[in-house]
């Protein structure tokens, strides 16, 4: 549950703080913890906002695939905030919720296509330290997606690692956004 971040949340002050609070409450029902934590360093916050705005304009790779990839990274890294927020976002963006709910146990679930499985395998392989991406997996994705979409997917996964690892390091956890809008709980990853 949210509330025990390693870096205390800053008070969102001034006109910009009021705007961020109002927009956050309108969009999410409350202010996401990462905003309060990163508010301590406005240059980092502005960078994050700018990157997020630009990434939303990327259109060469299917949104469902990118969503599954981000959630696969979050599941592997252990970012409960990103998993919860990713599921909530999938709901708000009209993506496949049945599949999004199953991402934490994608290997055992029977709802994913071979391409979706390759995307999540690729996301996890990029996330490993040291990355374990194989030539064979890259070739399959290149053949199926094409170069523009694979470049986009790779960059999207790299940014997912940036966000998830930062949230975990700062102690940012789920705020139960998905539960607040009545979504079924996320599947739990297998321990096998």
Describe the structure in your own words.
- The longest helix has 23 residues.
- The chain is globular.
- The protein starts with 13 loop residues before the first helix and ends in a 12-residue tail after the last helix.
- With 192 residues, it is mainly α.
- The model has no long low-confidence stretch (mean pLDDT 93).
- Helix content is 63%, strand content 0%.
- It contains ten helices and no strands.
- It has two domains: 50 residues; 133 residues, AhpD-like (Up-down Bundle).
**Per CATH, what is the topology of the largest domain?**
AhpD-like
Query: For the record, what CATH class of the largest domain applies?
Result: Mainly Alpha
How is the biggest beta sheet arranged? none
Structural class: mainly alpha
H/E topology pattern: HHHHHHHHHH
- Round the Cα radius of gyration to an integer and report it: 17 Å
The CATH architecture of the largest domain can be given as Up-down Bundle
Q: Give the % helix.
A: 55-70%
N- to C-terminal distance: 25 Å
> Can you count the beta strands?
0
Count of individual helical segments: 10
Instruction: Tell me the overall shape.
Output: globular
Average pLDDT taken over every residue: 93
Q: In total, how many domains does the architecture comprise? A: 2
CATH superfamily of the largest domain: AhpD-like
Element layout with pairings:
Layout: H1 14-28, H2 33-38, H3 42-55, H4 63-77, H5 80-92, H6 97-102, H7 114-127, H8 135-145, H9 147-169, H10 177-180
